[in-house]
Amino acid sequence: ARPIRLSDYRPPDWLVDTVHLDVALHPNRTRIKARLALRPNPAARGPAPLVLDGDELTPLSVTIDGAALPEAAYAAGPDGLTIPQPPPGPFVLEVETEIDPSANTKLMGLYRSSGNYCTQCEAEGFRRITYFPDRPDVMAVYTTRIEADRDEAPVLLGNGNLVERGDVPGTGRHFAVWHDPFPKPCYLFALVGGRLDVCRTTFTTMSGRAVELAVYVEPGKADRAGYALAALERSMRWDEEAFGREYDLDVFNIVAVADFNMGAMENKGLNIFNDKYVLASPETATDADFAHIEAVIAHEYFHNWTGNRITCRDWFQLCLKEGLTVFRDQEFSSDMRSRPVKRIADVRVLRGHQFVEDAGPLAHPVRPETYREINNFYTATVYEKGAEVVRMLKTLLGPETFRAGMDLYFARHDGRAATIEEFVACFADAGDTDLSHFMLWYGQAGTPELAVTRRHDAQGGTLVLDIAQVVPPTPGQPVKSPLQIPLVLGLVGPDGRDVPLVRRGHGPVERGVLVLRKPAERFVFDGITVPVVPSLNRGFSAPVKIKADLGSDDLRFLAIHDSDPFNRWQAVQTLASEILIGNVAVIRAGGGVRHDGGLVHALASVLGDERLEPAFVAQVLSIPSEGDIARDIGRDVDPEAIFNARHALRRAIGNDLAPTLRVLYDRLRDDGPYSPDAASAGRRALRNVCLDLLAAPGHAGAVALAAAQYAEADNMTDRMAALGTLSLHDTAEREAALADFAERFRDDPLVIDKWFALQAMIPDPGTLARVERLIDHPAFSLGNPNRVRALLGSFAQANHTQFNRADGKGYDFVAGMVLTLDGRNPQVAARLMTAFRSWRALESGRRDKARATLERVAANPSLSRDLADIVERSLG
Ligand code: DPP
Ligand code: ZN
Asked: What is the structure's pLDDT at 2?
């Protein structure tokens, strides 16, 4: 397939004003009658043929303005419908198609999950239901009549408001008619039919309108839907308070399904969710699960304004809705929970996924300029870096101007399909400022690297900071321009307080924001008569890498004194990272690891600081992951050496801090009933980090402590944490606990996913054989994306030593599974294949093996477009 280019964008030739769908649900022969009111687009070039998209459709009949169309007048097949000479003016096209929902293993379009009918249309699934101009800039008003056997599908849901329902006499069938008054692109279409239980409430909006909220789940699971419903209410209130956005329909329905490619989907008024992001109870969900549910519920709800009311002109603008909506859900979670802890967690995700993507062959700009398969661009770059770009706008402009820009965006573009240029123009206008340089963040891939050096003249009271920036080359972009970077700075004085920031020739620095624009810049500060330590990029104000001339004394000082909690955490991470990278080199050279008391000292002072919230301390105690270390090393990566260096450091921390960790572990025991609130979750997080570090040296007593916690836990967080700790120790306790877990939760697939994932991540040479055995476990299924991600995704993405086995067997295993999966669900197969994205950074032995595996996959003649795209770009 030819690549699609942003520069080729042209407005659609035909617009669709209204869509009437009549869907007769049947397990194998679902019939869809579509009535489209079409008219020529005044903005297009003039008379044009009508070309509608299709994918695996069976056409039954075609009429124009009520008259059957002669066969010679059109061409219809599985992949599309073309009418070379349509009427010149507005007309009504009626098409009947037939599809087989039970055979739809791609989980795109209309399919069945656990016997229930559901849809997924983003990005290009609607064309698998009926012929349509399947592009987001065609917005129409939809009315949908859904008919089904009353026994098979007592619940029938569509977009918008319910306008009619009733029986079809004498047939055992019934119907419902839903009408959505808001014009929308077809990717937001949805319907559901099935046997579902429901959990409901009523929400009163800021203007006093009552909205019926409902969460639908598989029968018997309604008692696990309450947290999601409450999270929805909090999201609706927050969007009113933080952004002035009120909900606009009479109902808001959420349906949880077991088989789902994505996390969830923001269909207008009818969100469809992967049940992983809905179902939760203390016994089955961890604190992290509760937090994810709250965040995803919020994310999809917030799309109602940023995505649905204002959508994207084309798929190149995907970050317009995704980056912005991730930013909004991050802000929501920060307000619901701890802002610094949320920021740290988000930056961990950004670095762990986006920085890695940006450093490899799959790097692309936040707004790509070309794609072959849009499904492959639902990436960390579009989502997470896209959110960072919005955050930088806020940092540059300040909160008031940012809010004014958002208000302008909603006022100007409501009901329309917009572009990034139009979005950014709202902020330029609100702030009366020029943001043309800032636009480079959308067009240039790669993570900027800053080098910072300082010179302090205590006598003269001046501090000079020299800051240079480089953006490394990425595929298709060998040469980069410097970016406009908001860098938040603090200068921490000897007493731990910030020294006022007064820039020579500019005066006080507003909100501490330095704005970089050039390859190299000098910032001179006056009145700095005491020694200061610069605290750079506070709150992670810009998604960049920084090399600063800070010594370990400076880092320890910041770890203890910085008023910016993010940089307190960052200082410890940087200290640990430097030790780890040094030890990796020592190990590879055959030496013994260096032990650094300074890091342990910094950790001890954080542990002893009772003013700090436990969730924050837990983050500080979590040293860089194997992935973090590999990324920071960047080339000639040896995953074994990284594992060994990290393991040695964890042992050292566990040994040196054992008494403190044990006291904390005992003190943080929570004897009350479980509550998923952030403060309680933070205490559990810290307690479980203590347990894990206590056990790291492998002492039998600490392993027994983990086994006891596993057995006694009254909630999934503590049970799973104990099991995670046990999983790292090759002991009888581990196998006993794993067996117990499997038996205890045998009827709960979402919980068994945790069991699959944990075993896939065990850093032992036996894990590959274990995973191969688990493929045959009765609870595993290649047809369910959650199962695939839990077992195969965890092995490939999160088990660095075993996926990257020196003998290459990890690569071959994953590639074999990807090929098997590709025939069934290309989207999930392609995603799994991205595990190879860092292959070039590996040491030469593994690199050669990974390349050979990629080449073998590439040589396969029948790859899906999704998989071929990933494999070819990975090798490119
Ligand atoms: N459902 C996906 C999301 O919300 C794609 N829109 O991010
Ligand atoms: Zn989204």
From this structure: 85
